């Protein structure tokens, strides 16, 4: 699901790519390329986006990290 989830979360919050780009300190074209998987988000950008969109740990992992976390680690958090 990954970046499709990012887009859907952004749209549900009523935010444009331009708005998120401004919030994280990059230009809209750079954000667009990252949201469309042509470039990767930095950890700092991912942290800011997750805060603005109120993403939970599982969503952050799915969107930005793409690793399989054991359920027990998620439940402890």
From TrEMBL:
Domain HTH cro/C1-type: 6-60
Source organism, top-level taxon: Bacteria
UniProt-recorded Gene Ontology molecular function terms: DNA binding
InterPro entries from the UniProt entry: Cro/C1-type_HTH, Lambda_DNA-bd_dom_sf
Pfam families in the cross-refs: HTH_3
Gene3D superfamilies according to UniProt: lambda repressor-like DNA-binding domains (1.10.260.40)
Stored SMART domains: HTH_XRE
Protein known as: XRE family transcriptional regulator
Species of provenance: Romboutsia weinsteinii
């Amino acid at each position: 699901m990954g970046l499709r989830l990012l887009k859907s979360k952004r749209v549900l919050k009523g935010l444009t790519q331009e708005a998120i780009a401004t919030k994280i300190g990059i230009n809209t074209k750079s954000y667009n390329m990252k949201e469309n998987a042509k470039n990767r988000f930095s950890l700092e950008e991912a942290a800011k986006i997750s805060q603005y969109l109120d993403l939970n740990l599982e969503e952050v992992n799915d969107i930005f990290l793409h690793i399989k976390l054991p359920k027990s680690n998620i439940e402890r958090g």
